[in-house]
Amino acid sequence: MSTDRWTISTQLDVSYEIRETPSLLDLDNPTLADVLTSDSQGGTKLVIVDRAVARLYGARLERYLKEYDVPHRLLELLGDEGRKTMGQVLQVISALNEVGTLRASDAPVAIGGGVVLDVVGLAASLYRRGIPHTRVPTTLLSLVDVSVAAKTGVNFQGFRNRIGSYSPPPLTLVDPAFLSTVSTRQISNGGGEIFKMGLIKDPALFALLENGGPALVANKFQSPEGAEAIRRAIAGMIDELRNNLWEKDLRRAVDYGHSFSPLVEMRHVQQLLHGEAVALDCLLSAFIAHGRGYLNHHEVDRIAATATGLGLPTWHPGFADTDLLMQALADTMRHRNGNQNLPVVESIGRATFLNDVSAEEIADAAHRMKRLGEHQESELVQRGTNR
Amino acid sequence: MSTDRWTISTQLDVSYEIRETPSLLDLDNPTLADVLTSDSQGGTKLVIVDRAVARLYGARLERYLKEYDVPHRLLELLGDEGRKTMGQVLQVISALNEVGTLRASDAPVAIGGGVVLDVVGLAASLYRRGIPHTRVPTTLLSLVDVSVAAKTGVNFQGFRNRIGSYSPPPLTLVDPAFLSTVSTRQISNGGGEIFKMGLIKDPALFALLENGGPALVANKFQSPEGAEAIRRAIAGMIDELRNNLWEKDLRRAVDYGHSFSPLVEMRHVQQLLHGEAVALDCLLSAFIAHGRGYLNHHEVDRIAATATGLGLPTWHPGFADTDLLMQALADTMRHRNGNQNLPVVESIGRATFLNDVSAEEIADAAHRMKRLGEHQESELVQRGTNR
């Protein structure tokens, strides 16, 4: 045997489903129970619940699990961005180990917002080198973004999602009715990612937000227009991920709004929610696109007005710190393997990429963004109202 | 848009290479330098080195990297089983973040034994959700086992490899000359995995070990027979993994020796090395096979004698603890999704699986194994020698 060089070439098939399931916790809706029992070997199911969700839905959930005789243990996790940590991941792994979760049966379920779903996703991808699980998003942001993505992640040393994996769970159950108990600010937060999706690839979705933003937020996306916006956002995300799930192509339109925002969000994590930071980055990038002649002044104004209509900020002092913006871009470039690959909107509903944006352009765009913010602020003051 | 159910189906292509590269650190061998510079964007390479390797080869490595002008930072890790922890994984991720390792360039290299390669492998699979790296195994165990596998892992709460991922690095460079400075006990340790491979699928490999075990260990696999044994072990491992890299099929012959040993090894981690625990499990399983009529008495004796010839133990008090063995099997069954799938040798060089092994059979096999161990012990004492 003289071979001294070996190659292994193989393929991993990945398939996962996102399914709308209204009235998920209604006692006469067996869907969740069917999912939980279909892979049962009689073991205890770990049911991981966002503490905020447990407060509102804990009793209904317990009643549901009891009704359907699901042997389970509840584990509550904290859902704020500051708790998106390896510590919470290890807490989940420890609980999985304690209940004795098998390799491919008695899979856990996670119910909550993006932080909880990302934490559980990472734990499930690491425990025994990966087990299946089911996820149930309960916030607008997790419903349109996390619930479609293959990514898991936690923050580390001040960097957003520095640690993570690509590991989509086989099934995500979506029940928009959860949104009825979500705070208005958290609805707007989710609106930030829908806003992004409209801007990069779906003019009809943008039109829904532009024409009906305040109403969508006021009734928490419970209207037919709200359902339509959610479905368009999910479908758009799927379309973008389908052929680039592992991000081998680092030119990703869905990264729009995610170039400068990660570090700004982490630095101002007490003030800014993810979707707010994303929306601010979308607007900054719109001003950069405007400077390149892609978007005209009127379109930038429409973008800003649509953000405002969704209850999203159009200015934050974090974006006045040009050093921070450049530092953020430098780190984002490391994530894009040394390239800017900066997604910008060339016309509403269509994205392109820039690779030669200068510090001056960014500072200039931030300056214009600030002026617009001040202008809006003074208009609001004149109207006797305020954010 | 009325869709309320979406499916994403896609494939991940994975390809990786294991390449023999004699004299890896010789200044006139450009292979490692070529690998380190081929993906360079001018950043700093993180070079992670087992502390035991750094002590012996640190100066040569530094001279090599200097000669080839590779901008780098060295990070030393501890290679003992007790340090196969998430703590060391986070230490690597922190260092990657500090030197600013990119998503797909300036990839790190790991040089060391199995613990270090598994720790770095997990870190690399998590940092930015996965970056490439190169691994250089320096012990016999890591050379024939870890260096071929796709698995990474760390121990957690007393359970071996409870946390991990499937994430093979694109390239492994194998230089058997590292073995010349490895201790005899560590050579025997690696011999445990080669022994397993011979037993489950390669009679010619088993014959090499049976006929020349003591000589192989004495000259640290530096002979042509040693090279042949290493290559057969690597080729056998590749053959087993090629079509089951993600272990969708939980009946794995390469799990031979890994059914009872993980927990016994963890409980006696100060006394037992991995390959020693594996060899003990191989022998226990041989006695179980004998009880089923697969192996005759003579074959079991040959298996035990071959282990002894390789400097491997044939008995350890951990295997007298039937409760511990049953607890180990229960946890292994969770890892095999509720099934025993116990690989046993039906004849030397061929494996089969059992799914109905009883506690009595295991206790009986352990008892016979103990008697054989006592017998060998008394023979050794009579000959005036001892392990």
Task: Describe the fold and architecture.
The structure is a homodimer of 387-residue chains. By secondary structure, chain A is an alpha/beta fold. Chain A has 13 helices and ten strands. Chain A has helices at residues 31-38, 51-67, 86-99, 114-126, 140-146, 184-201, 203-218, 224-241, 261-267, 274-291, 297-309, 322-335, 359-382; strands at residues 5-20, 45-50, 72-77, 109-112, 134-137, 151-156, 159-166, 171-174, 342-347, 350-354. A six-stranded parallel sheet of chain A has the order 1-8-5-4-2-3, sandwiched between helices. In chain A, strands 6-7 form a two-stranded antiparallel ribbon. In chain A, helix 9 crosses helix 10 and helix 10 (274-291) crosses helix 13 (359-382). The first copy, chain A, is globular and about 60 Å long. At the A-B interface, strand 1, helix 3, strand 6, strand 7 and helix 8 of A face strand 1, helix 3, strand 6, strand 7 and helix 8 of B. Strand 1 (5-20) of chain A pairs antiparallel with strand 1 of chain B, so a sheet runs across the interface.
